[in-house]
Amino acid sequence: MPSHPLLVPLMGRATSMQGHLWRYVPGLEAGAKPVHNGHLPVNIAHFGRIERVDRITIVHDGWQTLRSRLAKVALYQRLDPAGRYNLGVPYDEGLLFGYQREALKDLLREYRRRLADH
């Protein structure tokens, strides 16, 4: 237990908006402080409504179509051919469940097998 648990509410205000979840949109600006920038772009409020919650749970049960995934693979590979911004994971393997784009037939075969077992 801290020695002075009410220090902030009694001595001043301390609020912050911590945003660990946001999607890039062209025009967002990182902060300009050399140290102590927040987790959100500084102008994020200009791009829509901000929801404040104490807790959030995300369940991801799917993501569009295979055609859409293939389009994302092509886009990301064009924008970042070396995969630097995907922690070295090739974009096709990351978006196609571990399969390379050239192995699309294998991915579909495994999908059909799992669907039959389901």
Descriptive notes:
- The chain has 118 residues and is mostly helical.
- It has two domains: 1-57, no CATH class; 66-117, no CATH class.
- It contains four helices and no strands.
- The longest helix is centred in the middle third of the chain and has 14 residues, at 66-79.
- The protein is elongated, with a radius of gyration of 21 Å.
- The protein starts with 6 loop residues before the first helix and ends with a helix.
Key words describing this protein structure:
elongated; 118 residues; mainly alpha
Mean pLDDT: 83
Overall spatial form: elongated
The helix content is: 25-40%
* Major sheet summary line: none
* CA-based gyration radius: 21 Å
Per DSSP E runs of 2 or more residues, the count of β-strands stands at: 0
- Content of β-strand: under 5%
Distance between the termini: 51 Å
What letter string, H or E per element, gives the SSE order?
HHHH
Name the structural class.
Answer: mainly alpha
The domain tally reads 2
Number of helices: 4
Low-pLDDT residue intervals, each spanning 5 or more residues: none
Outline the fold blueprint.
Blueprint: H1 7-11, H2 66-79, H3 91-95, H4 104-117
Summarize the structure.
The chain has 118 residues and is mainly alpha-helical. It has helices at 7-11, 66-79, 91-95, 104-117.
